[in-house]
Amino acid sequence: MSKAPSQIPADPTRDLAFDILCGVVEHRRMLETTLDRSPLTDPRDRASAHRLAATVLRHMGSMTELLQPLLRREPPAPVRCALLMGVAQLRHLETPPHAAVGTIVSLLRRRGLAPFAGLANAVLRRVAREGDSLAEGLDPDRLDVPPWLWTAWGRRARAIAAGLHREAPLDLTMRPGAEAPDGGERLPNGSLRFPAGTRVTELPGFETGRFWVQDAAASMPARLLAARPGQSVIDLCAAPGGKTAQLASAGAKVVAVEREAARSVRLRQNLERLGLEVECVVADALDWRPAEPVDAVLLDAPCSATGTLRRHPDVLWVKRPRDVLALAKDQDRLIDAAGAMLKPGGTLLYAVCSLQDEEGPQRVAAACERGWIHDPFTAEELAGMPEALTNAGMFRTHPGMWAERGGMDGFFAARLRKSS
Ligand SMILES: C[S@@+](CC[C@H](N)C(=O)[O-])C[C@H]1O[C@@H](n2cnc3c(N)ncnc32)[C@H](O)[C@@H]1O
Question: How far is CA 311 from CA 38, 58, 211, 246, 305, in A?
Answer without folding.
Answer: 19, 10, 20, 22, 10
